[in-house]
Design goal:
Strand content of chain B: under 5%
Oligomer: heterodimer
Order of helices and strands of chain B: HHHHHHHHHHHH
Helix content of chain A: 25-40%
Largest sheet of chain B: none
Shape of chain B: globular
Low-confidence stretches of chain A: 1-7, 374-394
Shape of chain A: elongated
Mean pLDDT of chain B: 83
Largest interface: A-B, 41 and 29 residues
Structural class of chain A: alpha+beta
Largest sheet of chain A: 6 strands, mixed
Helix content of chain B: 55-70%
Number of helices of chain B: 12
Strand content of chain A: 25-35%
Chain lengths: 394, 286
């Protein structure tokens, strides 16, 4: 279902056009264009220093772009204070005012607007009830646990009735159990209030679990902006494939081209693949990805032998039990680490051991060809991905 | 190697004895003065005590005999309060300003802190000379106030640096995010959060001013502050009234310090009360 349809009157459509941010000599964000549909849950994902928090702060109005425009519902908001933008931010440290009780923290926005005490306390208590914290109204922030503080921060942001809620690494300060619980809670509240959530994170699984639109960033640029499923299943570049995990990246130089086949040299090995429609010429560098859980393992002859089409031969380097599956790491398979995720019932029917030579093979349709290096940060391309993300829905 | 935890090494006793000597040196004279200030009516400046009385305390307020104690005390308190207010206001504003690098910020900082190492008497002499040259009569609330601020402001600024290094800018951004104006952020967010630090600055401002001597000596003008009054008395008062004076002023200092530290402790404990662990809130696992 399309998020925009779920809330026909949804507000909070965000467009970044050619946004650049420089801090002195360093460029934090390079010419980014991105559209986030109204009422969607968008995750900005990337390693620290990739510019994701800077983008969030520029939408929030805590930084100004050096160049480019930030549009919310069609209006350029560059230069406007946060409240005029209709944005509210939840800070990584929560930034709850330590001298105010929970109810006064939540009522802060009403207080600065001059709402009388009785009314603002009543409305703050209603908001506290929404995040299930009404019984903690009179406590000070220091008397709450991390998860409780986060709920207060959420209530304090939502009371401004924003059309966009910006969350800066909201779950990073919580332990694993609370993180999973709050993750579901955030999604529930987003669906309830029907506004746009933009959530910055460096945790892949968190982003996949939450996002309608997942934006993968690196070095100030967007590598891919699409639905979570598309990013995970069809990473656009080698960077996305490696960063998201779950994929083996076969990289190397094209050495031979057949009618429907392509042979690349990867490390000391040659790998032959079913060719893409427009195969690169001989000598070109080439990258493709195969999902780790879509590969079958079998024992290979001890002398190795030839793997054949859509397969590699390697040696088991490590076996890691993961409960429902096993992570089998191969060495000498190709130039990069090659991992196969094997379901536990299949593995234990005929267990492999470390050091054994194995053949890893996949169906021709499982290979996914990756774009060479170029970033997706130019307008048309990013917008194109965004539309796909919207159509993909959840 | 197994060590007998109950037995202390010999160095412990040496160091403990040394520390005891130090404490005696620190508080011995003060205690002697405290005890002697209750000297009997016929007693002198030294032990033994000739009875016990409050006579020397009442003599303090007899201006002819002991100098202008009441006037000096009043002026010192008022001056200390003035210095306190100005030190807090200027230090807080300067501390907030120094969070950004501005043109010449390093130079301004070193200029401000340099007065910590300048001999106080020379600072006072300089200020006094300027007043004389300009032709303005020095006063305790004018020239002396300025001279004392050269001493208290660097302290205040350094304390604010320490306080602000632990102040999260996200508090201000959160205030801005929630629609507060600059003034509202300052008064409703920054000042309450920095308040314990401001009390510390106030305490320094007050106590440094209250017993300031070298900078005040040449800038005070016609009417003395208390330390100068006491200095005068040591040369012409030869009764235990001098000790009574020492006792009274020390008690004032202790009271101020106790008030300041007490209020900081109350604020800190109010803000850091831990959650009641026995009653794990149900909402955490809802």
């Amino acid at each position: 279902m399309i998020p925009g349809e779920r809330h026909p009157t949804a507000r909070g459509r965000i467009e970044l056009t050619g946004v650049t941010k420089r801090f002195g000599e360093t460029i934090a964000v390079k010419n980014i264009s991105l559209t986030i549909p109204a009422g969607s849950y968008c995750c900005l994902l990337g390693p620290s220093g990739c510019g994701k928090t800077t983008i969030l702060r520029m939408i929030a109005g805590h930084e100004s772009p050096t160049d480019g425009a930030v549009l919310i519902d069609g209006e350029n908001v560059v230069g406007l204070p946060p409240v005029r933008r209709g944005t509210a931010m939840m800070f990584q440290s929560y930034a709850l005012f330590p001298h105010l009780s929970c109810v006064d923290n939540v009522a802060f926005n009403l207080k600065v607007r001059g709402v009388p005490k009785a009314e603002r306390h009543q409305r703050a208590r209603e908001m506290l009830a929404r995040v299930r914290m009404e019984t903690f109204a009179d406590r000070l922030p220091a008397q709450l646990s991390g998860g409780q503080q986060q709920r207060i921060a959420l209530a304090r942001a939502l009371i401004t009735d924003p059309r966009v809620l910006l969350l800066d690494e909201p779950l990073s300060a919580l332990d694993e159990f609370l993180r999973l619980q709050m993750r579901g809670e955030l999604r529930r509240i987003q669906a309830e209030v029907g506004i746009t959530f933009i959530h910055v994170t460096h945790t892949q699984m968190e982003a996949i679990a939450l996002a309608d639109l997942l934006v993968v960033m690196d070095q100030g640029q967007i590598e891919q902006a699409a639905s979570a499923r598309e990013v995970y299943d069809q990473p656009r570049t080698g960077y996305v494939a490696r960063f998201m995990g779950g994929q083996n990246v076969l990289s190397g130089t094209v050495v031979r081209r057949g009618t429907n086949t392509l042979t690349i040299e990867s490390g000391a090995k040659e790998v032959t693949l079913t060719a893409p429609n427009a195969p690169p010429g001989e000598g070109a560098s080439f990258e493709a990805a195969v999902r780790r859980d879509h590969i079958r393992l079998s024992r290979a002859a001890s002398n190795g032998g030839q793997p054949g089409m859509n397969a590699v031969i390697g040696r088991v380097a490590a076996i890691e039990y993961q409960g429902t599956w096993l992570k089998i790491t191969l060495e000498e398979a190709c130039s990069e680490e090659f991992v196969v995720n094997v379901p536990d019932n299949i593995f234990f029917a005929d267990p492999l051991s470390v050091g054994e030579p194995v053949l890893a093979r996949w169906d021709a349709g499982e290979i996914h060809f990756l774009a060479a290096g170029a970033k997706a940060s130019t307008g048309s391309s990013a917008l194109g991905h965004t539309e796909m993300a919207t159509a993909g829905g959840r | 190697m197994q060590r007998d935890l109950g037995k202390r090494p010999w160095t412990f006793y040496v160091l403990a004895a040394f520390f005891a000597l130090f404490v005696l040196f620190l508080y011995g004279p003060m205690s002697a003065i405290f005890v002697l200030s209750f000297q009997g009516p016929t007693g002198g400046l030294t032990f033994p005590m000739n009875g016990v009385s409050l006579r020397w305390f009442s003599a303090l307020f007899n201006q002819e005999r002991t100098g202008d104690f009441a006037g000096g005390f009043t002026r010192s308190i008022l001056l200390a309060l003035l210095v306190l207010a100005l030190t807090v206001a200027i230090s807080v504003m300067a501390g907030l300003a120094f969070r950004r690098r501005f043109f010449g910020s390093t130079a301004v900082f070193y200029l401000a802190v340099a007065s910590l190492i300048m001999p106080g008497l020379l600072v006072g002499l300089g200020v006094g000379l300027v007043y004389q040259t300009v032709g303005v009569a020095p006063t305790w609330f004018g020239s002396a106030l300025g001279a004392q601020l050269t001493w208290t402001l660097p302290f205040g600024l350094l304390i604010m640096f320490a306080v602000l290094s632990r102040f999260d800018r996200a508090f201000e951004e959160a205030g801005r995010d929630l629609g507060a104006s600059h003034w509202q952020i300052f008064w409703m967010v920054v000042v309450p959060i920095l308040f314990p630090g401001m009390i510390a600055v106030a305490l320094f401002g007050f106590t440094l001013s209250y017993d300031e001597f070298p900078r005040t000596l040449l800038t005070v003008g016609a009417e003395n502050t208390l330390p100068l009054e006491i200095w005068g008395m040591t040369t012409n008062v030869t009764s235990p009234a001098l000790y009574a004076l020492g006792t009274v002023t020390t008690l004032v200092s202790f009271t101020v310090i106790a008030l300041a530290l007490g209020s900081i402790a109350i604020i800190q404990s109010r803000r850091s009360r831990r959650p009641i662990s026995a009653r794990t809130p149900a909402t955490d696992v809802s």
